[in-house]
Amino acid sequence: MFYIVAIICVIGIAAGQILFKMTSSILQKTGSFFSIETLAYLLSALALYGITTIAWIWVLQKIDLGKAYPLMALAFILVPIGSFIFFNEKFAPQYFVGILFIMIGIILAVRS
């Protein structure tokens, strides 16, 4: 169960990164941090980061840092997927080879 919460934390961190990117796009459009639209995205990102940080601290009470932390590397997989979906960003084929190596590393680290 602790690993499930850890993975939820990683998903939350990745979603927060997408929200920060959305905030930057809105900020560029509005030109102000104080516009309602910019603040909505920014506060959503900060709230998500805050909640996932509290959950992460709980996870670290239950699991060794050395076992939990490799799961954070999943963000290197989730954020690009989100950037493709939400921002239509493109990636070179070698990028996916790198993602594959990250996935193998996560599996090896967590199973050790």
Describe the structure.
With 112 residues, the protein is mainly α. The protein is 82% helix and 0% strand. The protein contains five helices and no strands. The protein has helices spanning 2-30, 36-62, 65-68, 75-87, 93-111. Helix 1 (2-30) packs antiparallel against helix 2 (36-62) and helix 1 packs parallel to helix 4. The longest helix has 29 residues, at 2-30. The protein is flat, with a radius of gyration of 16 Å. The mean pLDDT is 92.
How many whole angstroms does the radius of gyration measure?
A: 16 Å
Give a short account of the largest sheet: none
Strand content: under 5%
Quantity of strands, as a count? 0
N-to-C span: 18 Å
**Count the helices. How many?**
5
Q: Roughly what percent helix?
A: over 70%
List the defining traits of the structure above.
mainly alpha; flat; 112 residues
Strand-helix topology:
Blueprint: H1 2-30, H2 36-62, H3 65-68, H4 75-87, H5 93-111
Give a short overview.
It contains 5 helices and no strands.
